[in-house]
Amino acid sequence: MLKELRAMMHQDIESILYDQAAIQQVTAKLGKQVTADYQGKNPLVICVLKGAVLFMADLVRQIDTHLEMDFMDVSSYGNSTVSSGEVKIVKDVNTQIAGRDVLIVEDIVDTGRTLHYLVDLFKYRQAKSVKICTLLDKPATRVVPVQVDYAGFKVPDAFLVGYGLDYAERYRNLPYIGILKSAVYQLKQ
Ligand SMILES: O=P(O)(O)OC[C@H]1O[C@H](OP(=O)(O)OP(=O)(O)O)[C@H](O)[C@@H]1O
Ligand code: HPA
């Protein structure tokens, strides 16, 4: 049954950009960089739900320092492939931000609106430092500037799904990252 469902999801994929091995390799590289930069700092690593949950789970296992984890759920795409332009907090973090070295973990930076909003928010809450680690960076579609400190892959201007990334809540459980066929969403928007 699982295999059949996977096969059906796979039919909606134009091409695979990064398979499990490539994701693992780049995550290990990012984990090493973060480890080197946060020695002795006990960073607060904040996962931006829902998309970043798989990356977060793999990344923290590659970070070799003490750290704390928290989760924030923000949303701006709904069931669309286009940002609504409005970032909504669905669930806030539970941890006090003041004085903390915050590392935001994201699956993708696209227009930049989500990260711009979160960086401003954590600075306003008086974080000691705020950095961004994203698996995917899509610079061609940036609308607001964002300083990305750690990026896994620079990706083309296409709608991507898999490994946490969704279209209308689907495809998050694909083990790879691929380009979604435009036919899947063109009729629905
Ligand atoms: O740079 P931006 O244009 O702001 O896009 C990036 C954001 O969009 C996606 O989240 P989404 O709002 O779809 O919520 P989700 O993580 O629950 O899928 C993604 O996970 C990022 O958080
Ligand atoms: O390419 C994307 N795919 C899925 N979610 C996204 N949120 C911003 N860009 C994307």
From TrEMBL:
GO terms for molecular function: guanine phosphoribosyltransferase activity; hypoxanthine phosphoribosyltransferase activity; magnesium ion binding; nucleotide binding. It is found in: Cytoplasm. Pathway: Purine metabolism; GMP biosynthesis via salvage pathway; GMP from guanine: step 1/1; Purine metabolism; IMP biosynthesis via salvage pathway; IMP from hypoxanthine: step 1/1. Purine salvage pathway enzyme that catalyzes the transfer of the ribosyl-5-phosphate group from 5-phospho-alpha-D-ribose 1-diphosphate (PRPP) to the N9 position of the 6-oxopurines hypoxanthine and guanine to form the corresponding ribonucleotides IMP (inosine 5'-monophosphate) and GMP (guanosine 5'-monophosphate), with the release of PPi. The keyword Zinc does not apply. This is Hypoxanthine phosphoribosyltransferase. GO terms for cellular component: cytosol. Keywords: Cytoplasm, Glycosyltransferase, Magnesium, Metal-binding, Nucleotide-binding, Purine salvage, Transferase. The keyword Glycosyltransferase applies. It is an enzyme of class 2 (transferase). InterPro entries: HGPRT, Hxn_phspho_trans, PRTase-like, PRTase_dom. It comes from the Bacteria. Belongs to the purine/pyrimidine phosphoribosyltransferase family. Gene3D superfamilies: 3.40.50.2020.
